[in-house]
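Researcher: Next entry in the queue.
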Amino acid sequence: MIHIRKATSEDLGDLLHVARTSFLQEFTTGNKPENVQAYLNEAFTLEQFEKELDNPSSIFFVAEKAGEIIGYTKVNQVPAQTDIHDPDSLEIARLYVLEEHLGSGLGRRLLDTAIDFAKQNEKKYLWLGVWEMNARAIRFYEKNGLRIFGSHPFPFGDEIQTDFLMRLDL
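Model: Structure for this entry, 170 residues:
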């Protein structure tokens, strides 16, 4: 059975491990190894995750199976949002599932958790950025009602990539 709950500081090491592992599983193909490593060294460190977990405008929800974290989503309210900064919105900053659990419905459960949280906090819509080359993720979000409404540059190592911005009205 899979249980989804808010992350606590006790989850930090396991959460970071799942974040790094799932990131590598998803983004190694199609990217320069040095850019992947540079991003991991910047965004996926213990210090960075401690800071994010301590931020009252950011919340991590973890999915556990048999006591092990197998996926998570991080949501941001203003002022932690990376782009839109609209108090009527909730940003899904990350939604990662370990490769062996892809296709299990876990991604949908984590998305539903974010949607429920947005509704409980009276948000009018949620949004996220997704790498334009991540066709599987784009299909997943479209299948679940999100639509592309724009894009923004995403610095990744020595490149500037493009993220599509996707939105779901609540």
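Model: The chain has five helices and seven strands.
Researcher: Noted, moving on.
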